[in-house]
Design goal:
Distance between the termini: 95 Å
Number of domains: 3
Strand content: under 5%
CATH superfamily of the largest domain: NADH-ubiquinone/plastoquinone oxidoreductase chain 6, subunit NuoJ
Structural class: mainly alpha
Largest sheet: none
Number of helices: 9
Number of strands: 0
Shape: elongated
CATH topology of the largest domain: Four Helix Bundle (Hemerythrin (Met), subunit A)
Order of helices and strands: HHHHHHHHH
Length: about 200
């Protein structure tokens, strides 16, 4: 009973945080709402005894991905006013996607032929059981190619974020490395001889 109360409490917070991500006007506030959503999702993972996934969700997404999001938001100098003006143009596509996702979720929950009873609590596992070993075995044997492909995609995303950050825009100060290397001491230092003067 207590687990169900926690589940519904975490789910309510998660839904509110997810709505805050897409409705908040300030991108920094939106990112903070996403952090709250990740933390709440980690709590739900803990309720079904998936400790490793909960820890990874906090460490990887909150500790690394969200920092990258904030760097991108702060450094790309995106004109959010122009994005808001064009929001209504694609609003219908967003509503259509949301309706499709909701219908899929309802279909999965309502389907009884899948053999999954969502009302039953998971079977308690032994105290010495660890899902870290099981996940590692599956990832590095059955899904090793998909795992490596995901790593390459993340690397491409990081390179693309750096390339977007370093693009030329008005007022951006960059280093002229070739000019710094080719400089000569005579061009930078000038010796001036000043006649000595007597103090009165």
């Amino acid at each position: 009973m207590f687990v169900m109360i926690l589940f519904y409490a975490f789910s309510s917070v998660l839904i509110a945080a997810a709505l805050g991500v897409i409705t908040t006007r300030n991108p920094v506030h939106s990112a903070l709402c996403l952090v709250l959503a990740f933390f709440t999702s980690a709590g739900i993972w803990l309720l079904i005894e998936a400790e490793f996934l909960a820890i990874v969700l906090v460490l990887v997404y909150v500790g690394a991905v969200m920092v990258l999001f904030l760097f991108v938001v702060m450094m790309l100098d995106v004109s959010f006013e122009e994005l808001r003006r064009g929001f209504t143009r694609y609003a219908w596509l967003g509503w259509l996607t949301a309706c499709v996702v909701i219908l899929e979720l309802v279909g999965v929950i309502a389907a009884r032929r899948l053999g999954v009873d969502a009302t039953q609590a998971p079977t308690p596992l032994p105290a010495d059981y660890g899902n870290t070993h099981e996940l590692g075995t599956v990832i590095y044997t059955k899904y090793v190619y998909a795992f490596e492909l995901a790593a390459v995609l993340l690397l491409v995303a990081i390179v693309a974020a750096i390339a977007l950050t370093m693009r030329k825009r008005p007022g951006l100060k960059v280093q002229d490395v070739a000019g710094q290397v080719a400089v000569r001491a005579g061009d930078r230092i000038r010796l001036v001889k000043v006649d000595a003067e007597k103090r009165p």
